Here is the input.
Amino acid sequence: MKSIAVFNNKGGVGKTTLLCNLSSFFQFKGKRVLVVDADPQCNASTYLLKEDDYLRILLDDKTTIYSIFQPVKEGRGYISKDSIPIHESFGFDVDLIVGDPKLSLLEDLLSQDWVSCKGGDSRGLRTTLILYDLLFKVKDDYDYVFFDVGPSLGAINRVVLMACDFFIMPMSTDIFSIQAISNIAESVRNWKSDFERGLSDYSAKEKCDFLIDGNRVAPKLSFLGYVLQQYVAKTVSGEVRPVKAYERIIEQVPERIKAELADLYDDSLSGSLLLGSIPNFNSLIPLSQMANKPIFKLSGSDGVVGAHFIKVKEFGEVIEQIANNVTSNIDCYDKLAR
Here is the structure.
């Protein structure tokens, strides 16, 4: 099983749209996929579920991601595997842990316990590893777990990223996305360093490793690649290319990635970090949101007409290329680990 966070602290980069469509495509290709909505804005949940179903879960069942954090908040340890609140998105065909706005109320707790985690305190380590424990419990049930997170560098996202194998960075083609790279690099680097120091200090004090279900814990987060989104394209000699203004921004990305993130990925991946480019698909996204279906599965009954059918097909080809590149880069990491 591989765990992947789709993460950028800059908002408006198409993060949730990418995550939901990519996860659904992997499921479409026969993989077992779980989406965890760890964004208090709950955009993934409202995209993957019909409104009535989401409100019922949020208000009546109360079986959301908050259920996972509740036992730790109350000092009762981790949630049991049979209590993990997993629901099904029928339009996207993936399993889902539903988001909850109340998750934002845990920022203070997670921040306080992060301080003690850095000092090697067992309570702080347990809190920080809550999603690490979740992943360990579902590792035999899924091939991929995708985390949707909010556009921040806060405590919730830190807990997500310290649990994950990889992160993917969606980027809009503007100068602010390029500037965000350095913020992300510095934060992730510091989080990993502090986490490693906390684990080391715990081992020194307790004369043993910190274990989750008998397994030694170690930070494993690596950069898997980036996806460029929302550029305006033109066709030149039969090839679809971004217009010049966007092209100048896009050309800066590889150099900035190498300068800021080089220690978070293996050199052998340096030529394959661009997972794909998604041009502006205009009205297909709201159609997908209203239908609660992935873009590549939209049909006439969902409001697709005329030339939009070609766009649906084009999006399917784009998301397939991204999925293939994600798989290829993960395979490279697996080979390096052998």
The mean pLDDT is 91. The longest strand covers residues 222-231. Residues 36 and 147 are 5 Å apart (CA to CA). The first helix runs from residue 15 to 28.
